[in-house]
Amino acid sequence: TLEAPRQAPALTDLTQEEMLARLQKGIRHEVLEGNVGYLRVDNIPGQEVVSKLGGFLVASVWRKLMGTSALVLDLRHCTGGHISGIPYVISYLHPGNTVLHVDTIYDRPSNTTTEIWTLPQVLGERYSADKDVVVLTSGHTGGVAEDITYILKQMRRAIVVGERTVGGALDLQKLRIGQSDFFLTVPVSRSLGPLGGGSQTWEGSGVLPCVGTPAEQALEKALAILTLRRALPGVVRRLQEALQAYYTLVDRVPTLLHHLTNMDFSTVVSEEDLVTKLNAGLQTVSEDPRLLVRAVRPKETSPGPEVGDDEPPEVVPTVPGAEAARQALVVSMFQVSVLPGNVG
Predict the structure, then answer these.
(1) Among 28, 34, 235, 250, which one is least packed by beta carbons within 10 Å?
(2) Model pTM score
(3) Containing domain of residue 239, as a range?
(4) d(C-alpha 119, C-alpha 222), whole Å
């Protein structure tokens, strides 16, 4: 016979001290190099827990991350959580000037739908919309964590880095089969998609990352992306200075500067992305295909050549002295003929 597995007590059945201890195990945070905030959440707490311990979470975790320049939300080990916790996570990353409908959840046993909206007010402060957010995922990221990842990606509020998520279910119920000792685990709730539209969501297929990489390398990749994005304002500023100082089509410079100032770099996650976006924009605005941006990694410079240098000295081309050699050079560079109709 098969026995029903013993379940751990729900958070809401615990004392406040026990809830606090459980939460502290499932939530870790620190400030990484480059002033990047790191928040790992292994289980999404629900509304009842947040209402009781929200002040503690804000004071001991969230407030310490508010001064960071960017945030990494690590959901690689988050396999579930409570649906009622979704609006809390989204709201702290969403600006408070609007209330946004982010999902609609259908529950089969009660045959009801529940709309999920961002909160008009939060305890403490929201994370600035001007700061980058990266969500880390793995093949184990499931359920509520997937919905949060999907919503943030659809809102274009976060860059998702890691592996395709598991494609699980928001809510599972364990049902006894008749009077036997057999049990069936069934998904009983499903997401209808952000803003209540669309027939396809992440369930079954998982959330596809913006940047795919093995889960164990996702944090390293995220930090590299944030380093590039931190450099973007300086790159744009130097581009503007170069155009003002050197570009020969002077009348088009003001339009180019305006375009650079207003470009949306939210999807840029690599040097290749940046180069492609800049070239497409600058060439369209200037109508000049010669205007090119390239990514060049500078070579290390030294005061002078050293003995044993592998790189040969630069050869300056010269015109050969011999007549035959000069004639061969000209033939290799020019083709001369008279076409029909006496056309040179």
Answers:
(1) 250
(2) 0.78
(3) 226-286
(4) 28
The Cβ-side half-sphere exposure at 126, using a 13 Å CA radius, reads 20
Strand partners, 288: none
Identify the band that residue 1 occupies on the pLDDT scale cut at 50, 70 and 90: very low
Which residues, other chains included, contact 159 with Cβ-Cβ below 8 Å and sequence gap of 6+?
132, 133, 134, 135, 210, 211, 222, 225, 269
Residues 232 and 207 in one domain: no
Count how many domains the chain has: 2
125 and 200 inside one domain: yes
Edge-to-edge strand ranges of the sheet holding 70-74: 27-32, 36-41, 70-74, 132-137, 159-162, 211-212
Paired with 107 in beta bridges are 112, 189
Q: How far apart are CA 239 and CA 179, in angstroms?
A: 73
- Asked whether the predicted pLDDT for residue 5 surpasses 50, the reply is no
* Rounded-to-integer distance, Cα 306 and Cα 304, Å: 6
Please report, for the domain that includes residue 46, its CATH number: 3.90.226.10
Residue listed under structure tokens 């009622």: 84
